[in-house]
């Protein structure tokens, strides 16, 4: 199993190229199941989750050509409608095969994703929305099964909770449904907008993405197209926090400040000097004092849960005390015990982590438990005295392209190894 060895104490300095967004590329790849003509995707990040999704599409019968960050999904039909447990268990986003398969082929069996480290993450909203679109839904033998004779029917769907992949699954299904679908209390994340833009570029008729009401007029078929995935705002935020905690200066390129206003506002509140251009963001911490901030996660445009663990580290390095409140997932503080092993002073009170300034963080052997928790351990290791070994970094490979190369280019002392090397 791969691990990272990180020697702390370096200031990060330089430029880092941001990859395409995992959370946009995943639904877009699943959405290609809706279309039987060739689709070319650019800026697809090279990640484990993307590899799993490509395997899933191939398993379902599609032929793919991957050339670096370009993925070509060749003209052809899906010839299997089962997303098996072996593939789904490694990636919860596989549930997004459900909407496209049932919309295009009238049947889909998708293994129920298991519980994961950050919370139970049920899929009841996905199931209920498809039921409203007249699909016959059942859960049998660990699989969500959807069946419909002919096309799905447009429906008015009120989402009880704001769900990102729930909104995306239903939007994909509605793209080929008969009639109009209105999704209310929809997720407003930029990745939902990117998926809508992609589908519209293939001939779908989706209005309102980015607001809480999305109106989809179903069309009979989608045509071929070419699309470039939007930049990863969470990867961007992670490198900016890296600059902030090490007192450095980092420019993220190929990114977009408009995607991450809440995060940039919190970084400024923490004392960072931020400048932005058309496709870059620079954070300069030189001569600035890092101050703890209070953050509370909530659906977009509020502060993203996927940046919570990184800001926990920011707060333990900063002066003062910062409160980090998680309102989206019930178990997303798995990084806290590991940070405490490195010398952090963090108290957990319900869904709030009270983070005090740590006089001294020291390197330790720590365990990655989920994607962003892993990123936070890498950030803490950059400022800790001595050497940190981060185990189980397969979690980080799900969502950060070449993270050790990118951090090393910025001056970090980080190497990947495994017990055999
Ligand atoms: C691939 C992808 O895009 N993943 C992102 C997506 O996950 P994902 O789409 O899985 O997260 P959701 O937005 O669905 O989850 C939000 C909340 O709704 C609950 N819920 C969701 C669906 C459902 O049917 N029933 C239900 O109760 C969840 O348990 C959670 O408490 O949004 C999360 C919240 O921004 C991010 O952390 C993930 O990185
Ligand atoms: C929780 C995340 O992803 P996923 O929904 O794919 O587990 C994440 O990107 O932080």
From TrEMBL:
It holds the Pfam family EPSP_synthase. The active site is at 116 (proton donor). UDP-N-acetyl-alpha-D-glucosamine binds at residues 92, 306, 328. Its EC number is 2.5.1.7. Residues 7-406 form the Enolpyruvate transferase domain. Pathway: Cell wall biogenesis; peptidoglycan biosynthesis. Phosphoenolpyruvate binds at residues 22-23. The modification 2-(S-cysteinyl)pyruvic acid O-phosphothioketal is found at residue 116. The keyword Cell wall biogenesis/degradation applies. Keywords: Cell cycle, Cell division, Cell shape, Cell wall biogenesis/degradation, Cytoplasm, Peptidoglycan synthesis, Pyruvate, Transferase. Gene3D superfamilies: Enolpyruvate transferase domain. InterPro entries: Enolpyruvate_Tfrase_dom (IPR001986), Enolpyruvate_Tfrase_sf (IPR036968), MurA_subfamily (IPR050068), RNA3'P_cycl/enolpyr_Trfase_a/b (IPR013792), UDP_GlcNAc_COvinyl_MurA (IPR005750). It is an enzyme of class 2 (transferase). It comes from the Bacteria. PANTHER family: UDP-N-ACETYLGLUCOSAMINE 1-CARBOXYVINYLTRANSFERASE. Belongs to the EPSP synthase family. MurA subfamily. Cell wall formation. Adds enolpyruvyl to UDP-N-acetylglucosamine. This is UDP-N-acetylglucosamine 1-carboxyvinyltransferase.
């Amino acid at each position: 199993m791969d691990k990272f060895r990180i020697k702390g104490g370096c200031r990060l300095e330089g430029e880092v190229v941001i990859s395409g967004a995992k959370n946009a590329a995943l639904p877009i790849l699943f959405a290609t199941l809706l279309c039987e003509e060739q689709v070319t995707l650019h800026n697809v990040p090279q990640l484990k989750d993307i590899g799993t999704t490509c395997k899933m599409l191939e398993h379902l019968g599609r032929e793919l050509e991957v050339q670096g960050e370009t993925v070509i999904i060749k003209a052809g039909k899906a010839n299997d409608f089962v997303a098996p447990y072996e593939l789904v268990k490694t990636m919860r986003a596989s549930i997004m095969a459900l909407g496209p398969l049932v919309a295009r082929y009238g049947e889909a069996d998708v293994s129920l994703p298991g519980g994961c480290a950050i919370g139970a993450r049920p899929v009841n909203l996905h199931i209920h929305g498809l039921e409203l679109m007249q699909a016959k839904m059942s859960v049998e033998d660990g699989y969500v099964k959807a069946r419909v004779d002919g096309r799905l029917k447009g429906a008015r769907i009120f989402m009880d909770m704001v769900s990102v992949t729930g909104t995306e699954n239903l939007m994909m299904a509605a793209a080929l449904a008969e009639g109009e679908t209105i999704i209310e209390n929809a997720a407003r994340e930029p990745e939902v907008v990117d998926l809508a833009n992609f589908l519209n570029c293939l001939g779908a008729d989706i209005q309102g993405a980015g607001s809480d009401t999305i109106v989809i007029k179903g069309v009979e078929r989608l045509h071929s197209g070419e699309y470039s995935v939007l930049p990863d705002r969470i990867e961007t935020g992670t490198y900016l926090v890296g600059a902030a905690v090490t007192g450095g200066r980092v420019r993220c390129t190929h990114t977009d400040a408009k995607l991450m206003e809440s995060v940039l506002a919190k970084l400024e509140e923490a004392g960072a000097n931020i400048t932005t251009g058309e496709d870059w963001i620079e954070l300069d911490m030189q001569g600035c004092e890092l101050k703890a901030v209070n953050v509370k996660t909530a659906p977009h445009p509020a502060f993203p849960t996927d940046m919570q663990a990184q800001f926990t580290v920011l707060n333990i390095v900063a002066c003062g005390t910062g409160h980090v409140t998680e309102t989206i997932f019930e178990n997303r503080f798995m990084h806290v015990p590991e940070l405490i092993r490195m010398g952090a002073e963090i108290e957990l009170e319900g869904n709030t982590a009270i983070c005090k300034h740590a006089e001294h963080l020291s390197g330790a052997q720590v365990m990655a438990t989920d994607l962003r928790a892993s990123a936070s351990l890498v950030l803490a290791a950059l400022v800790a005295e001595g050497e940190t070994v981060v185990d189980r970094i397969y979690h980080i490979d799900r969502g950060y392209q070449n993270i050790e190369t990118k951090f090393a280019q910025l001056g970090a002392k980080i190497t990947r190894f495994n017990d055999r090397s």
